[in-house]
């Protein structure tokens, strides 16, 4: 509905207009009232009505003076005058401020409906033009971001400003630019509980920034948004960020502190991106940054990992001795050394994490009976690490894995069925490529099939068939990462004669098709 502010110094007239005209049936909503022009001016900035219906003759500030000032503040405001005087001078004044119409008191409902239908059509026409101009401006801004030629940048900026979009009107000709990113987007959407719901809430908050804080939002992709405003960052985007509450842990707002001309957007955007990427890489998700382009960049050492990383033997000892706090401290020091050695690239750290996982799983998971099925599948963990964009989140992922491993080893020490289950696991790991039935496996460990099912489920939390599938998928994942074997060849080697059946199980287990998994882990 279109919104209306009513202005009249006569209380009875104002009450009649507000309560006895069927505004909702006509497609309008009354958002406020005022008793004179001065009071109305104070309210239009807060209420931002589409239309003002005002009396002409009022004390303090009359309708003509009010309308003249109001149109200067809100150029698209529609004015309708009311008067008990059919006077040519009033009509002439109304025309001077480009009023939509002039109604005489007492109101004739037919005339009112006719005029308001005309107002509604004008609002709709202007809204269509406004939306068209907005879409065009956003596309031009995206083009400007990729432009490096200064002359072309100036030309494109002038083209954008010529559209006269309301949000891009600045008295100084300068604007403030802020980059908003949803951090760890891939991990948040796939691996974090309620992550997709959090993303939807953040997107709604970004829409609120556009509507309520006077910023033009240019969505560059699903996780990156550019906010452009004629106001200072402290007036709109920064207060908006502080209102995010718990959602701010996944959102980084990087604001350029100084207003600049639109033609500088391409250069300033790169400054914002570099500053944002540096902060998220080093410190994790969720920051409010003022990106001074002259700020000193951190000096990162290029020393090798071998010279700086602590000995992994200490971590192994902490895991074996059940020391979670010491293990966490070791990991903190380990990742600090990786940052110093990797510069600003996360890929060397990913590779180091992969090597560390291989050592942890090889030393502790394979060596302890009944541990593997209680730990996160290594192939799935590798897939998760591949999409992480910050060192702290990568450290957190590895730390959770190590602490969970310490807990599982402690539980395992007192498990009376460990030997039997371990024998069965060993048998499965040796014969996973062969047809395996519960009867055959039970016979090999000297138990009845039903009893074997029971203790295996109690001990591992999964069925024998689920464990067989897990072992086969791990071997398949290893072949996908480390060999050039074709999919149907890998399928046969892990006990599946039908490649389609193998692909379906792999997708269900890992979350990716075999081909997708192979491509995603190539860079690791």
TrEMBL record:
Keywords: DNA-binding, Phosphoprotein, Transcription, Transcription regulation. It comes from Cohnella phaseoli. The keyword RNA-binding does not apply. The modification 4-aspartylphosphate is found at residue 55. InterPro entries: CheY-like_superfamily, Homeodomain-like_sf, HTH_AraC, HTH_AraC-typ_CS, Sig_transdc_resp-reg_receiver, Tscrpt_reg_AraC-type_HTH. The keyword Disulfide bond does not apply. One of its GO terms (biological process) is phosphorelay signal transduction system. Residues 3-120 form the Response regulatory domain. Residues 422-520 form the HTH araC/xylS-type domain. This is Two-component system response regulator YesN. One of its GO terms (molecular function) is DNA-binding transcription factor activity. Pfam families: HTH_18, Response_reg.
